[in-house]
Amino acid sequence: MKRRNFLKIAAATLATPALNISRAWAAEPGAPLPIPEVMEIGPDAGNTLDAIRGTHEFIAGAPSETWGYSQDYLGPLLRFRRGRTANISVANRLDEPITAHWHGMHVPGYLDGGPQLAFGPGETWAPELPIDHPAATLFYHSHVHGRTGPQVYRGLAGMIIIDDPEIDDPLPRNYGVNDFPLIVQDRGFDRSGRMTYNLGMMDRMHGFRGDEILVNGVIRPKLTVPAGLVRLRILNASNSRVYDFRFNDGRQFYQVASDGGLLNVPLATTSLQLDGAERAEIVVNFSDRSPVSLVSHDIGMGGMMNGGMMGDRGGSMMMDDRGMMGDRGMMGMAGNSGTTLDIMSFDVGETAPVGPASLPTTLPADAPELGDPVRRRDFTLNMHTGGMMRGMMGRDGQMMGINGEPYIMDRIDETVRTGETELWRINADMMMRHTFHVHGTSFRVVSQNGRSVDPARIGWKDVVRVQGPTEILLRFDKLASQETPFMYHCHILEHEDAGMMGQFTVT
To answer: What range does the record give for the signal peptide (predicted)?
Structure first.
C-alpha cells in the first residue's frame, strides 16, 4: 500500500463521529505500593517460577483474569550476583507455550529465552545462567512469537536486579527501605472494571495504550519513604506507552543508571523519558518531608508526523472511553497528548534516614572500550510488508517487518562475529516512533535523528528510541547458534508480534 493511500484511509477512519458512553467504575488511588518478594537466584537448585493463571482486582469488586510467574500477576523480583551461576526452573502451568527471556542479560543464545526456546504446557525449562553482567536493573518476560504482547500484558513479566560484589555501590541499596522497584504499566479496563486486551486498528498500528497507570500491579499507589535519599528503579513494562516522568512540584532528582548499569556520574534533571522496556535508576531527596507525586506528560502515540494527525489518541474523534471498533478498539486512550498522567504518590514516614546522606561525584560504571567498528549494518523498520490494512484488521498477523521482510523463525537474517565491533544504523520507512531492542549485549548510542549524542550521558543501553536515523555501536561476546539465535526487534510489543523482528547468529 502506498503511503499516501494509507494516510487517506487512516484519516477517514479517525473522522468517525464521537459518542459518549460512560463507564460504571472509578479507580481509587492511594493503596500502598506492593514491594515484590525477592527470589535470590544462586547456584543451588530450588528456585522455580511457575507460570500460572490467577485473578487480580485492579478495580475493587471487579476481578480480572491474569497470568503471573508464581503469583497471580507479574512475578517476584529476581536477584542475581555477578560471577555466580544462577540455576532457575520455569514451569509452564498454562495452556499455551511460553518463554522466560532475560531482557538485557548477557548470556548465550541457548539461554536467552527468545522465541526459539518456547516450551509447552506441562513442560519445565531449567537453564543454568552464568551471570556475567555489570550491576544493573533488568527485565524478564515471556517472548513467544506472535504472543508476546498479550502474554506480557496479562502479567508474565518481572524485574531483575544484578549485584556486582566487586564494586562498592555508593547509592541507597536497602531493598524495600530506601531502594524500591517501580514496574510501570498502562492497562485497559472494560465498563465493568475488568482488564481487557482487545486490539483495534490503531492499537495494532501504534501499539496498545491503556486508560489506567499501574505501578507494581496497583493503580496509582502510594509509597511511604524515609526522609533522605531514596533510590527508585523504574521499569517501563508497558506494551508501547512512552513516559515522561517528573515530580509534580518540579523537584530535581539524579539519574544514576540506565538499561545496562550505572552511569559515570549522577545526572541532575527534572524529567526522565522512558520508552517501552527501558529502565533507569534515579535518586530522589525526600529530606524536606513534603508529600509529592510522580507524574508523566502524556506523549501520545508517537506516530506519524511526530504527534500530528495520527500522533494523538485524544481529542474529539474518540468514539467512547473504550475506543472505536470494539471494546478497546481503534482509539483506546489514557488522556490526550500533552495532558498529565498520575503515576503514584509519596509521603515521608517517621523512619530515620538510612544509607548515604549525599551522592558521590562519580559512580563505578562498567566501561569496556568498544573500539572502531569493522563493519556497518543498516536496518529499516517497515510498517507494512504487503497488505498493510489487511494485517491491521487481523487477517494477516505478519503485516510488519525489518528490511522488507517479516519475521520468520527458520530464517537467519544476519551473521555476526564474536568480539568484533559493529555500527548499526536503524531507521523507519514512515514517520513513526519505534523502540529498537537487541538481545545478547549492551550498546552505546552514537547518534539520534542525525545528531551526535554523548554516550556517557546515556549509558549502556539495550533499547533505543528510533525517531529518525539512529546509530548504535555494539559488540557481541556471547555466542548464538542457528538453532537458538539472538533477536533484534521493535519493542512496541504489537509491532514485534506483527513481524517487526529479525534474528542473527554470533559465531
So the answer is: 1-26
> What's the number of domains the chain is made of?
3
Strands 340-348 and 222-225: parallel
| Contact of 485 with 504, CB cutoff 8 Å | yes
pLDDT above 90 for 418:
yes
Residues 6+ apart with CB under 8 A from 121: 92, 93, 94, 95, 96, 97
* Same domain, residue pair 203 and 344: yes
347 vs 360: CA distance, rounded Å: 25
Task: Indicate the DSSP class of residue 306.
Answer: G
Contact 228, 287 (CB under 8 A): yes
CB 467 within 8 A of CB 449: yes
Strands 38-40, 77-81: parallel, antiparallel or unpaired by DSSP?
Answer: parallel
Are both 214 and 105 inside the same structural domain? no
pTM over 0.85: yes
Question: Which CATH number covers residue 257?
Answer: 2.60.40.420
Using the Cα atoms of residue 198, residue 202, residue 203 and residue 208 in order, give the sign of their dihedral: negative
Supply the DSSP symbol for 12.
Answer: H
Query: From CA 335, how far away is CA 159, in angstroms rounded?
Result: 27
- C-alpha grid cell, residue 449: 535523528
Going by C-beta distance under 8 Å and a sequence separation of 6 or more, which residues neighbour residue 142? Answer: 51, 98, 99, 100, 101, 148, 151, 152, 156, 157
| 309-321 pLDDT tens trace | 333 333 323 333 3
Compute the residue count for the chain.
Answer: 507
- Type and span of the H or E element at 129: strand 128-130
Residue with cell 556486582: 164
Pick from 498, 488, 507: which is nearest to 379 by CA? 488
**Amino acid at residue number 269:** T
